[in-house]
From TrEMBL:
Keywords assigned by UniProt, alphabetized: Oxidoreductase
UniProt entry tagged with the keyword Oxidoreductase: yes
Domain of life: Bacteria
Organism: Ramlibacter algicola
The organism's taxonomic lineage, starting at the top: Bacteria, Pseudomonadati, Pseudomonadota, Betaproteobacteria, Burkholderiales
Record-given protein name: SDR family NAD(P)-dependent oxidoreductase
Length: 254
């Protein structure tokens, strides 16, 4: 799909990988809606790229529908969805006090990362399926953001790994499901990236993490994620695929 002139939605677009992707889409000529729970940051990014900010909670159907309606009123119907919003967690199954990990924490991560992504995807797909087809019968493209933790989850990452593994497992069946509507589905599983959250770690910790990556021995750049995300949109034969973007990193147990 030619990105130029298309309306695009980016969940989690106010910071990190989402912000980089929103900026790259805009650079390539897309009309970008920045969807995020943080309205202030979303407004800032949208103002920078000439897009529109839509405060929303991806786990809420009403909130997502309102954001989609606001974006469509401004940019027209979207053909590109970048599902990048997500949260992290690290809880041992058996806590230091001997008690079990809190169930609420596990449910919260699954709800945001997996259920929230599915919620955004189903609402986008239902609207996109009604659009006239473009060249080759294509109507739209959507991206999920997993993690190498889906494959190499570390100690304490049960909730996070399960949520990201769910996105990996959903990719192919959703691509097959939506093939009849001309909507492609792919997932990127990033490794260690220089996001605002990771940059909050002490510098020695950041350097240690970077040194664990075989090549290049540095943290991934958010713009590298964004470039791959946009390439997936442009390459019509990429469908139903999960792509690791990690510099050949395989995570240690802890």
């Amino acid at each position: 799909m030619n990105i130029q002139g298309q309306a695009a939605l980016v969940t989690g677009g106010a910071s990190g990988l989402g912000e980089a992707t929103a900026r790259e889409l805009a650079r390539l000529g897309a009309k970008v809606a920045v969807l995020d729970v943080n309205a202030v940051l979303a407004e800032k990014v949208a103002a920078d790229i000439g897009g529109i900010a839509c405060q929303c909670d991806i786990t809420s159907t009403d909130s997502m529908q309102a954001a989609l309606a606001k974006a469509e009123a401004k940019h027209g119907p979207a053909r590109i969805l970048m599902n990048i919003a997500g949260i992290g967690s690290a809880k041992r199954v058996v806590q230091k006090d001997g008690g079990p990990a809190p169930l609420d924490d596990f449910a919260r991560v699954i709800n945001v990362n997996l259920v929230g992504s599915y919620n955004a995807a189903r609402l986008f797909a239902a609207a996109c399926a009604k659009l006239p087809p473009l060249d080759g019968g294509e109507r739209g493209v959507m991206l999920f953001t997993a993690s190498i933790a889906a494959f190499d989850g570390q100690v304490g990452q049960q909730a996070y790994s399960a949520s990201k593994g769910g996105l990996v497992g959903m990719t192919l069946p959703m691509a097959r499901d939506l093939a009849q509507h001309g909507i492609r589905v792919c997932t990127i599983a990033p490794g260690l990236f220089a996001t605002p959250l990771l940059k909050e770690l002490p510098e020695p910790v950041q350097q240690s993490l970077a040194a664990s990556i075989p090549f290049p021995p540095r943290l991934g750049k958010p713009e590298e994620f964004a470039q791959l995300a946009c390439h997936i949109v442009k390459n019509q034969h990429l469908n139903g695929e999960v792509i690791r973007l990690d510099g050949a990193l395989r995570m240690a147990p802890r």
